[in-house]
Amino acid sequence: MEDMLAVSIWRGGEDGEFVSYDVPRLENQTVLDVVTYVQRKLDPGLSYRFACRVGMCGSCAMTVNGRARWTCRTHVSRVADDGRLEIAPLRNLPVVKDLSVDMVDFFDKWAKAGGAFSPTKSRADDFAAIPPGDAKRRQANAGIECIGCAVCYTSCDVVTWKPGYLGPAALNRAWTLVNDTRDGLGRARLRLVAGDDGCLGCHSQQGCQEHCPKSLSPTAAIAGLKRAVVVAVLKGKL
Amino acid sequence: MAGQIKVTHRNHATWWAFALHRLSGVALALFLPVHFLVLGLAIQGEAALDGALIWTEQPLVKLAEAGLIVLLAAHLTGGVRLLALEFLPWRDWQKTLAALAGGVSLAVGLLFLVNAF
């Protein structure tokens, strides 16, 4: 193991550049630890985001050696080939400064995809009884653990090519709600996600599931939406 | 001077399967006019078409034809893979499906070559 890591970190906005730092190599060290070391010891002006440090909040995703990753749970030993790290902001989102990107578009698209739960009952009603083995519930469960880190969004070529495309995370969210029997938006949500900017725009490159740190499969969710849209169209309901 | 961020998010099996499907489609579309041109020779008479067909017997042309067959098979199996992905229940072994499509395409090309020489 090397004593020092050669770290290049993106500084500035869209037209910024990489700045090099030397960071002591530790045996047990995450990429977020490296960024934090730079900010605390070498350059207090460095901007980056993190909150939980344990892979729950989804705020620390960055491009590490060319690939989007959750930095808090990415060990340096797994990614630093020959002791080098290149840390950059996420693709497909405007750079605010250094490693921070503007996530507004990303989360606005969740709303555009009908990502809000639309209840059919009130708090006065009894609990909805849904068996865990229920087929629709299992489909919803498969995608429900998304932490909104935008790694899939940043790894998707369709988002790059078509800025209006809702993206894997928003469509995955829509699919979990399509399968939530307590939700009442139904066909209206399918209408939101059908079309070129919705599920039909997906080219099934599967970069989203390849890079998802939670090992979810947004491609499976989008394929499910495509099937639901086709079935609804054939039945004349869309 | 602005820096350049390197990206490697594309280097995985299903992205390459996507690229191959697109490129094989473009290549086949470019070949189609030539295909129709040769078929059109039949209108000019038997000799014209036979002349073109004899020309295709050359080893190098046969080799190129094998490439064409691989492209056609890749585009076909790639299309079947996409239809299965979108219309059949989801399978987690998508990379195996992509590998299968690639393997079948190469096997078809090889079969053509074995028969051609």
Number of strands of chain A: 7
Radius of gyration of chain A: 20 Å
Fraction of residues in H or I helices of chain A:
25-40%
Structural class category of chain A: alpha+beta
Q: List low-confidence stretches of chain B.
A: none
What is the name of the CATH superfamily of chain B?
Fumarate reductase/succinate dehydrogenase, transmembrane subunit
Short structural description:
The complex is a heterodimer of chains A (238) and B (117). Chain A has 238 residues and is an alpha+beta fold.
Q: Could you explain the architecture of this structure?
A:
The complex is a heterodimer of chains A (238) and B (117). By secondary structure, chain A is an alpha+beta fold. Chain A folds into two domains: 4-101, Beta-grasp domain (Ubiquitin-like (UB roll), Roll); 104-234, Alpha-helical ferredoxin (Fumarate Reductase Iron-sulfur Protein, Chain B, domain 2), CATH 1.10.1060.10. Chain A contains ten helices and seven strands. Chain A has a five-stranded mixed sheet. In chain A, 35% of the residues lie in helices and 14% in strands. Chain B is mainly α and 117 residues long. Chain B has a single domain (13-116), classed as Fumarate reductase/succinate dehydrogenase, transmembrane subunit (3 helical TM bundles of succinate and fumarate reductases, Up-down Bundle). Chain B is 80% helix and 0% strand. In chain B, helix 1 packs antiparallel against helix 2, helix 1 packs across helix 3 and helix 3 runs antiparallel to helix 4 (94-116). The radius of gyration of chain B is 19 Å and the shape is elongated. The relative contact order of chain B is 0.13. The model of chain B has no long low-confidence stretch (mean pLDDT 92). Classes of the chains: A alpha+beta (238), B mainly alpha (117). At the A-B interface, helix 9 and helix 10 of A face helix 1 and helix 3 of B.
